[in-house]
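Hey L., structure's done. Input below.
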Amino acid sequence: MKRIESKFKESFYESLVRGVTGVSPDVLQLMEEALAEEKSSPAKGMLEAMLKNVELAQKLKKGVCQSPGIPCIYVRCGPEMARIDVQKISRESIMRATREGYLRPSIVHPLTRKNTGDNSGARHTQF
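Output:
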């Protein structure tokens, strides 16, 4: 069981990082096609900057966007995962990704506005 949990934990974290440091190939292709078809110089400049940003984010392992929002996670597991604490692993992964600079620590308590600094705000990883 420990091996499955360890593998899930690392895969989950890597997926989280990949999700904020890149864009899917289809989106990248659409951005490149838009650049090729764009006539407006300001719009072309913006698309070029966006494509360069994606390239640098992937190369430097940095977020594509400075504020990627609140993680929204859906996990579908088979029976072998029944004894793994998916909620705990996702919470720890989000906190780790925040500490390592992939996620901006912007989640605050809705009433007190207290910021934990690691996106572990109350009830943000409830299932």
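The chain has four helices and no strands. The mean pLDDT is 87.

-- N.
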